[in-house]
Amino acid sequence: MFTITDKAAEKAKLVLAEEGKAEWGLRVYNAGGGCCGPSFGLDIDEKSSVEDEVFEKDGLKVFVDKSCLTSLNGMSLDYYDDGERTGFILSGGEAPSCGSGGQASSCGSGCSSCG
């Protein structure tokens, strides 16, 4: 199961509100794969499509293409702030589907890299 932490939901709702897009949601998407496994991206989107599974947490909507659900199984969307770096991160999970492997992906400002 794909989960969203309280901290990620809180921060994402704040970011969306600041952008004047409080009714929008986050989109987790397959950004390709490589030697370290699948890579995921994070963006904002106005609405879901018929190919999406929609997850909700405390009023935040997260859209995920159904073809990526297996890769995201066991993963969690979280938000971190260590004083030097801040951003959203996908961690956990092991089942490959959108690429090879099952490594974590870090997401910030819409980009993704191996974690």
Topology:
Layout: E1 3-4, H1 6-18, E2 25-34, E3 37-45, E4 52-57, E5 60-65, H2 69-72, E6 75-81, E7 86-92, E8 105-108, E9 111-114
Parallel strand pairs: 1-6, 2-5
Antiparallel strand pairs: 2-3, 4-5, 6-7, 7-8, 8-9
Description:
- A hairpin with a 2-residue loop joins strand 2 and strand 3.
- The chain has two helices and nine strands, in the order E-H-E-E-E-E-H-E-E-E-E.
- The C terminus is likely disordered.
- By secondary structure, it is mostly beta strands.
- The protein is globular.
- The chain has one domain: Hypothetical Protein Aq_1857, Chain: A (Sandwich), CATH 2.60.300.
Can you describe this structure in just a few lines?
The protein has one domain: Hypothetical Protein Aq_1857, Chain: A (Sandwich), CATH 2.60.300.12. It contains two helices and nine strands, in the order E-H-E-E-E-E-H-E-E-E-E.
Distance between the termini: 20 Å
Number of helices, counting only DSSP H or I runs of 4 residues or more: 2
CATH homologous superfamily caption: HesB-like domain
For the record, the CATH architecture stands as: Sandwich
Number of distinct beta strands: 9
Summarize this structure as a short list of keywords or feature phrases.
Hypothetical Protein Aq_1857, Chain: A, globular, 9 strands, disordered C terminus, mainly beta, 15% helix, five-stranded mixed beta sheet, four-stranded mixed beta sheet, 115 residues
